[in-house]
From TrEMBL:
Keywords: Cell membrane, Lipid biosynthesis, Lipid metabolism, Membrane, Phospholipid biosynthesis, Phospholipid metabolism, Repeat, Transferase, Transmembrane, Transmembrane helix. Residues 219-246, 394-421 form the PLD phosphodiesterase domain. Catalyzes the reversible phosphatidyl group transfer from one phosphatidylglycerol molecule to another to form cardiolipin (CL) (diphosphatidylglycerol) and glycerol. It comes from Coprobacter fastidiosus NSB1 = JCM 33896. This is Cardiolipin synthase. The chain crosses the membrane at residues 12-32, 44-64. Pfam families: PLDc_2, PLDc_N. One of its GO terms (cellular component) is plasma membrane. The lineage of its organism: Bacteria, Pseudomonadati, Bacteroidota, Bacteroidia, Bacteroidales.
Length: 481
């Protein structure tokens, strides 16, 4: 009997000790979240998760919740060296035939991330994977000195193997080939796919490779960029990864996306972004002149290449979006697959619409992520009440990420209008200042609009009650999705 009492007392002591440790861990984590002084919405979302799902919440916070903004991707010396290689000393912003609003945006982007303006570019817009990859494959075949390729997803499928073999063939011709892929984005890809390229001489590196437990807490910070630079004279950037679905579509229709090909000095901006990511991954700075050759002006489009990510003081793309939206006087046309806006972005769009700016938001009718779609839908009522026109694309999956404002500004890149793109992902966008290109982008939007159904406030209010409840519940988690 005495023995049983001792065992029971020990069990009770162990239970009480574990319970105290558990409480201290939960309270300590909540205090850490509060002390970080991050966005209150995100802080509250994490606290709610910790309080209602404490064990799951601790694990999720360890993997997805920690901040890394105070870190640096590259030394100041390295960044200055790249800046000296890419800045155009002949650009006098005051003398350029641009609106004051555009000049303000250009100055802001430069202040935030030293993103210089590159005049004199030619830009080709692709709205489907078939045309984009046909062009890319041809450019890869014609490469003479180097190919730098970076994608969030590089799939081991028909298209992926076509690109892989082309890169291997170019190495055999003496072309330098470097590849960065995101380790999480390519989790479904067997390592031998990349090993084959490595064995053939392609320098292949995963971005923030997830190892346990050392880098498990960086699982949430992914490189979502899609960049190609060929010979320092041709560049690609946009929303398409390397996978068959970007060409072949999905079960419910086409894969509608937007990507651009750039020739001209703005390729320097893409090469700088790649060089910084390569330095972050390998500690090797690609600053030789071979990677920044003289590039003549080939067209009349002014381009800035903006990057952003969880590292660094400012959220460059998010703040530049806000500035562009705030400057709008006539129209704002937005295409995005996911719409989980920050409070500031939501208010900026509402203010623009209430000021009688023609604000139109296009989303997919059916998404590849039901959870993200539910969260996106929770924001639409307040958008509709402000007078924003909302369209659901019905011809397949809309994955395009573009904004067109008034008659001079448009942007295309990898950035979605959601918390993940603004706060957690490494993203890249081309900001373009051109009446000709803006007109083209506006016409693309209007053509896509013909394949949409418009959502009105009265129609939206009639959706099922259970749907509204699900949206509201998932919205609580939207800052951490």
């Amino acid at each position: 009997m005495l023995y049983l009492n001792i065992i029971q007392n020990i069990d009770q002591w162990v239970y009480n000790s574990l319970y105290v440790i558990y409480l201290i861990t939960i309270i300590g984590t909540i205090l850490v979240i509060i002390s970080e002084n991050r966005n209150p919405v995100k802080s509250i979302a994490w606290i709610v998760v910790l309080l209602f799902l404490p064990i799951v919440g601790i694990v999720f916070y360890f993997f997805f919740g920690q901040e890394y903004r105070r870190q640096h991707m590259i030394s100041r010396k390295g960044k200055r060296k790249l800046q000296q290689l890419t800045e155009d000393p002949d650009v006098d912003l005051q003398e350029m035939p641009l609106s004051e609003e555009s000049k303000q945006q250009i100055r802001l982007a430069y202040t935030l991330g030293k993103s210089g303006l590159h005049p004199g570019n030619e830009v080709t817009v692709f709205t489907n994977g078939k045309d984009k990859f046909a062009s890319l494959i041809e450019d890869i075949k014609n490469a003479q000195t180097f190919i730098h390729l970076q994608y969030y997803i590089f799939a081991n499928d028909r298209l992926g193997n076509t690109i892989k073999q082309l890169l291997i063939d170019k190495v055999k011709e003496g072309v330098i080939v470097r590849v960065i892929y995101d380790d999480v984005g390519c989790w479904k890809v067997k390592q031998h796919f990349f090993d084959e390229m490595e064995a053939a001489g392609v320098d292949v590196r995963p971005f923030l490779k997830v190892t346990f437990p050392q880098l498990a807490n960086k699982l949430n910070y992914r490189n979502h960029r899609k960049i190609v630079i060929i010979d320092g004279k041709i560049g690609y950037v946009g929303g398409m990864n390397i996978a068959d679905r970007y060409q072949d579509g999905v079960a419910w229709g086409i894969w509608r996306d937007t990507h651009i090909r750039i020739t001209g000095p703005a390729v320097y901006g893409l090469q700088t972004a790649f060089s910084i990511d390569w330095s972050f991954t390998t500690r090797e700075l690609l600053s030789d002149n071979i990677y920044f050759p003289p590039v003549p002006r080939t067209g009349n489009i002014n381009v800035q290449i903006l990057t952003s990510g969880p590292i660094g003081e400012w959220k460059g793309i998010s703040l530049s979006f806000l500035k562009a939206i705030s400057n709008a006087k006539q129209h704002i046309y937005i295409q995005t697959p996911y719409f989980l806006p920050t409070e500031s972005l939501m208010k900026a769009l509402q203010v623009a619409a209430l000021s009688k700016v023609d604000v139109r938001l296009m989303l997919p009718e059916k998404s590849d992520s039901p959870i993200l779609q539910l969260a996106s839908h929770s924001y639409l009522t307040s958008m509709l009440k402000a007078g924003i026109k909302i369209y659901f694309y019905q011809n397949g999956f809309l994955h395009a990420k573009s904004i067109t404002i008034d008659n001079e500004f448009s942007t295309i890149g990898s950035t979605n209008l959601d918390f993940r793109s603004f706060d957690h992902n490494f993203e890249i966008n081309a900001f373009m200042y051109s009446k000709e290109l803006t007109t083209q982008m506006k016409n693309i939007f209007l053509d896509d609009q013909k394949k949409c159904r418009r959502i009105t406030l009265n129609l939206w209010k009639k959706r099922p009650l259970w749907h509204k409840i699900c949206e509201s519940v998932v919205r609580l988690l939207s800052p951490v999705l």
